[in-house]
């Protein structure tokens, strides 16, 4: 199927009412755009469940003055370098640093790398955002 396709959906009226209220609050102009995003979100979730090639970002906040911590994080990033395709470092203040790493690999491997990084002792905040390669999403 190519191009735009229209299809009908039957659902309880109350459910649709609730949905319309929610998407209006979120700023969607039409139901179609909201439903397209929900479908994409579902497909991305499957990309991660099925251990497919995908993209994720890891955000870390830590104190750069903990000398060993900076060394451990750098060592890990070199160890996983083919998967870590980019990184951003921001000096938040005198002590705190924020890093965002972009990781492209199979889903399970990205989780593994994210777990290794976020569990390093002294990391104040660590989180994985499960993004997508964008393939298969239209
Ligand atoms: Ni810094």
Describe the 3D structure:
- This protein is of the alpha+beta class.
- It has two domains: about 15-50; about 55-130, 2-Layer Sandwich (Alpha-Beta Plaits), CATH 3.30.70.1150.
- Helices cover about 40% and strands about 30% of the residues.
- The protein is built from four helices and four strands.
- It has helices at about 15-25, 30-50, 65-80, 105-120, and strands at about 55-65, 85-90, 95-105, 125-130.
- Strands 2-3-1-4 form a four-stranded antiparallel β-sheet.
- A hairpin with a 4-residue loop joins strand 2 (about 85-90) and strand 3 (about 95-105).
- The longest helix is centred in the first third of the chain and has 19 residues, at about 30-50.
- The protein is elongated, with a radius of gyration of 20 Å.
- The structure holds nickel (II) ion.
Structure in a nutshell:
This protein is an alpha+beta fold.
Portion of residues in beta strands equals 25-35%
Q: Can you tell me the number of structural domains? A: 2
* Helix count from the secondary structure assignment: 4
Count of strand segments: 4
Low-confidence regions: none
Mean pLDDT equals 95
Name of the top-level CATH class of the largest domain:
Alpha Beta
The rounded Rg comes to: 20 Å
CATH architecture of the largest domain: 2-Layer Sandwich
Structural class: alpha+beta
CATH level-four homologous superfamily name of the largest domain: ACT-like. Chain A, domain 2
CATH topology of the largest domain: Alpha-Beta Plaits
List ligands, each type once: nickel (II) ion
Q: Largest sheet, described in full?
A: 4 strands, antiparallel
The best one-word shape is elongated
Strand order of the largest sheet: 2-3-1-4
What proportion of the residues is helical, as a percent range?
40-55%
The termini sit apart by 12 Å
SSE pattern: HHEHEEHE
